[in-house]
């Protein structure tokens, strides 16, 4: 049983990290992981269904399967996510994580349903952009919030496990697409797919209302009593007897902006993280946004395409689990670098295969390694920024990924041409560049407490 004296003086004031570490891992952290993970899976479902609904858009609006309009549709949500990440991240550092998350999840549901009901391709394109704008705020802020509630020794594992919910969203996208497009005409199936993809956000929103604001954020804003109250409630939920003493006040800092990230001491890590996020995202989405269409070009019917996509999603799970183990055993930076270099090797392997079975094996290995890299990167990034700039930093890094995602469909279209080796060689080179950028960050956050300023 952990007990702290209520009569502690300011001289013996403790930090939020002290309290979180003493409260330890328990019911509250597991609930928060589930809530954040459900949101993460719902957002993955929303993001990844774009390539699955293309056959329905072709049937409904007479689009070309690989033309400019198809590429625009694949890119629309990513453009929205780029804008959203840069807008919502700094806002969360000013007004709080909780309010931004509730707003973005609500908007994501609203815009997702709007896309399903669109009477024209142009309206569908607009709603996909708006859906991305909402999701662009949910993803980075979710990570900042979870990082600020988890004990130091388990933070890396929790952050990777949160990223692993992306695999559940991928599985859901494949299963829903497989079911709908094999039972309904494509002109109807895409609407049902977009509509059903928006519904998990409602469940997430309902549960998320009970999640409190980050005590670290509250303390930074001078709301010490609210922070103490929330920490006390966490202790009760975790079954600990804890009387929270006076909390050490962090240095008063001005609100973060994007410019803050490019001033010492954050500038170096911001630049190198930007390179890593951009390279990983361009390679990942460049390959996987077009893989269903690539499988079709190999002569597979829709049922087999969705089966293959399901296999790729399942291959992500061991990649995440191994990353969750490694980030706390060997460190964030080493794990990220190893996964990125492994992804480069598997991308090169893809260029050597010629059969559908070989393509499936190579892409499964890529799925394993790339999603492990994502898990390590999402664990590493929020720990490299102080509390006053954590959501801003995550928003900027996520924005670099979304910028790459906008370019990815055009670059990835090389997969459908005779220049397969050129495309995969480019992606392999990107993974190598990203690995060296991560290596040169120089910081290792394993076992380190979060900085406030």
TrEMBL record:
This is Putative MFS transporter. Residues 32-446 form the Major facilitator superfamily (MFS) profile domain. The keyword Lipid biosynthesis does not apply. PANTHER family: SYNAPTIC VESICLE GLYCOPROTEIN 2. The keyword Transmembrane applies. SUPFAM superfamilies: MFS general substrate transporter (SSF103473). It is a multi-pass membrane protein. GO terms for cellular component: membrane. Keywords: Membrane, Transmembrane, Transmembrane helix, Transport. Gene3D superfamilies: MFS general substrate transporter like domains. GO terms for molecular function: transmembrane transporter activity. It is found in: Membrane. It comes from Deinococcus yavapaiensis KR-236. The chain crosses the membrane at residues 32-58, 70-88, 100-117, 123-146, 158-180, 192-211, 271-292, 304-327, 334-354, 422-441.
């Amino acid at each position: 049983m952990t007990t702290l004296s209520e009569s502690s003086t300011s001289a013996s004031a403790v930090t939020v990290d002290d309290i979180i570490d003493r409260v330890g891992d328990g019911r509250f952290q597991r609930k928060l992981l589930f809530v954040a993970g459900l949101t993460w899976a719902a957002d993955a479902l929303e993001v990844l269904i774009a390539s699955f609904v293309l056959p329905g858009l072709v049937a409904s609006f007479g689009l070309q399967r690989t033309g400019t309009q198809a590429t625009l549709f694949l890119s629309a949500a990513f453009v929205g996510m780029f804008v959203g990440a840069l807008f919502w991240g700094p806002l969360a550092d000013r007004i709080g994580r909780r309010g931004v998350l509730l707003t973005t999840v609500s908007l994501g549901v609203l815009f997702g349903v709007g896309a399903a009901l669109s009477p024209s391709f142009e309206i569908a394109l607009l709603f996909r952009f708006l859906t991305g704008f909402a999701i662009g705020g949910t993803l980075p802020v979710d990570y900042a919030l979870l990082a600020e509630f988890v004990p130091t020794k388990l933070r890396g594992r929790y952050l990777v496990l949160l990223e692993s919910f992306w695999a559940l969203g991928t599985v859901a996208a494949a299963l829903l697409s497989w079911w709908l497009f094999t039972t309904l005409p494509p002109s109807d199936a895409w609407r049902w797919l977009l509509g059903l993809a928006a519904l998990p956000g409602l469940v997430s929103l309902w549960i998320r209302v009970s999640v409190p604001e980050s005590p670290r954020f509250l303390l930074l804003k001078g709301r010490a009593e609210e922070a103490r109250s929330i920490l006390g409630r966490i202790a009760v939920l975790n079954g600990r007897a804890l009387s929270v003493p006076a909390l050490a006040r962090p240095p008063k800092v001005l609100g973060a902006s994007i410019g803050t990230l490019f001033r010492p001491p954050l500038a170096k890590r911001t630049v190198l993280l930007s390179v890593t996020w951009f390279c990983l995202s361009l390679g990942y989405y460049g390959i996987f946004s077009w893989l269903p269409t690539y499988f079709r070009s190999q002569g597979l019917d829709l049922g087999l395409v969705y089966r293959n996509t399901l296999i790729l999603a399942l291959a992500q799970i061991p990649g995440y689990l191994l990353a969750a183990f490694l980030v706390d055993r060997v460190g964030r930076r080493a794990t990220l670098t190893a996964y990125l270099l492994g992804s480069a090797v598997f991308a090169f392997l893809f260029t050597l295969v010629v059969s559908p079975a070989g393509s499936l094996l190579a892409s499964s290995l890529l799925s394993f390694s790339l999603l492990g890299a994502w898990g390590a990167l999402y664990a590493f990034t929020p720990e490299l920024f102080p509390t006053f700039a954590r959501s801003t930093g995550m928003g900027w890094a996520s924005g670099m990924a979304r910028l790459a995602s906008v370019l990815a469909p055009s670059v990835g279209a090389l997969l459908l041409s005779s220049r397969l080796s050129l495309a995969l060689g480019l992606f392999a080179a990107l993974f190598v560049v990203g690995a060296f950028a991560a290596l040169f960050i120089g910081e290792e956050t394993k076992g380190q407490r979060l900085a406030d300023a």
